[in-house]
């Protein structure tokens, strides 16, 4: 777990550096007992400004358990906060769900646990789950008038080989 944490810390640092942005302080937005797991920038509401999607993770110590391989793993769930920016790049929360995604340390049965990635392309938020040889799934969400379009949100596709 220590190696995994180091890897994600390094990945986050490299990503933040390559985007050439100062470190934004979202401590007033992230709820107590949660940490930022991932941060993605892009224009979600098509106003020409970068909005922000935060993937957050609970830090409940009771969810740190020993798995079937006798390893200590963090099974705290992850959540999402979507923030729209204004002309001064201050952010307003438009979507909050603190536990909608499973932990990255769930057991994958005979294979490996699902791998989740989040990206913003052409004004849409894509959440991708990779299940290895069992296929993949995705969620596409769109925003209309600064409201999450539920019809777009549930366009989930499960593809299997």
Helix % is 10-25%
Poorly predicted tracts of residues: 1-23, 150-161
N-to-C order of helices and strands: HEEEEEEEEEEHE
Straight-line N-to-C gap: 31 Å
Average pLDDT works out at 75
Strand count, sense and barrel status of the largest sheet are:
5 strands, antiparallel
Describe this protein's structure.
The chain is mainly β and 161 residues long. The protein has one domain (23-159). The protein is 13% helix and 44% strand. The chain contains 2 helices and 11 strands. It has helices spanning 2-18, 150-153; strands spanning 34-42, 51-58, 64-66, 72-74, 78-85, 91-101, 115-121, 124-130, 136-144, 147-149, 157-159. The longest helix has 17 residues, at 2-18.
Topology diagram in text:
Blueprint: H1 2-18, E1 34-42, E2 51-58, E3 64-66, E4 72-74, E5 78-85, E6 91-101, E7 115-121, E8 124-130, E9 136-144, E10 147-149, H2 150-153, E11 157-159
């Amino acid at each position: 777990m220590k190696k995994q944490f180091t890897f994600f810390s390094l990945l986050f640092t490299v990503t933040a550096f390559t985007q050439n942005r100062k470190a934004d302080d979202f401590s007033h937005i992230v709820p107590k007992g949660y940490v930022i797991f991932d941060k993605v920038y892009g224009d979600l509401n098509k106003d020409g400004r970068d909005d922000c999607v935060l993937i957050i993770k609970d830090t409940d110590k009771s969810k740190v358990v020993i798995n079937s391989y006798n390893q200590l793993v963090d099974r705290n769930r992850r959540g999402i906060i979507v923030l729209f920016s204004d002309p001064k790049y201050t952010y307003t929360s438009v979507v909050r769900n603190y536990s909608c995604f499973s932990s990255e340390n769930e057991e994958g049965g005979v294979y490996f646990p699902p791998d989740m990635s989040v990206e913003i392309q052409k004004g849409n938020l894509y959440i991708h789950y990779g299940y290895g040889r069992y296929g993949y799934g995705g969620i596409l969400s769109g925003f209309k008038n600064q409201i999450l379009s539920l019809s777009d949100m549930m366009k989930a596709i499960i593809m299997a080989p």
